[in-house]
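Submission checklist for the structure archive. All mandatory fields must be present; incomplete records are returned to the submitter.

[x] Identifier: Chalcone isomerase domain-containing protein
[x] Organism: Mortierella isabellina
[x] Residue count: 275
[x] Sequence attached
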Amino acid sequence: MFRVRSVSQAARRIGQSYPVAQPLIPGHRLVARRLASTASAKTTTSSTAWMAPAAVAAVGFSFLLSSAVQTEAARSETIEEPMTNMQFPLTIHNGTDQKVILGLGSRQVSFLKMNVYVMGMYISVKDARVLRKAGIWTDAQAAMDSMDHAQQMLKQPIDIAIRIVPTRATGGQHLRDGFTRSLLQLMRDHSKELTEDDERQILEGIQDFKAKFPSTKVNKGDEFIFTRTANGGLKIEFRGKELGTVKNRWVADNFVVGYVKLGIVKNVLENDNLR
């Protein structure tokens, strides 16, 4: 069990009074660490070959914090993902904005029970205000609990950052191909809704994604940040360096939607914290 303290300070920045977050998920520990140390956080997983995300059949993802708006005092803290013991920062500075964590979890291969990577989802206080104004988070439990709610959220001009850290070494091409297969599968799932021109533009966007993705070796603990931007792009960052932005809204939105469809994005906030 864990507890986040001093939420009200950051909450006042949006003109709301939030109660202190209550424990949500057992097994997660809030650990006081400097953010600078989290980039080199070690995991307890082995260094065996990393399987492609497309082969992942089971996903473990627990949303941990009771509000998208968190205390500024938490910026020096991390939270531990229990399956891997990996530390993730409660806040990240992505571009000019400080973003706060919405959730944390690990992705696994079901038949091997092998962790593939740990991911956290982040949003800025400014964008939390946009979602509140749009009425999307009036029911926090449902805010990211279904495809419909995810689609409503993605219609808003907000940034959503997904921080991914592998638990084992792999090749950049191996990881890239896994993400690509996931996007192609989503395109096939919606093929009846797409015109030939739509499909052509999507394939061009996926090709651009592949071209911008690093082909180098990816070490255990390396950091990727994929940001679905407010203007509909997908910004790719690796080891703190920006590699470019895929200017294709479908690719950007469905990179996020893919995690919702897998049942990852659930129970983001407690309802009481949005009233």
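[x] Structure attached
Curator remark: The two ends are 24 Å apart (CA to CA). The helical segments are 7-11, 35-38, 125-133, 140-143, 147-154, 172-189, 196-212, 249-261.
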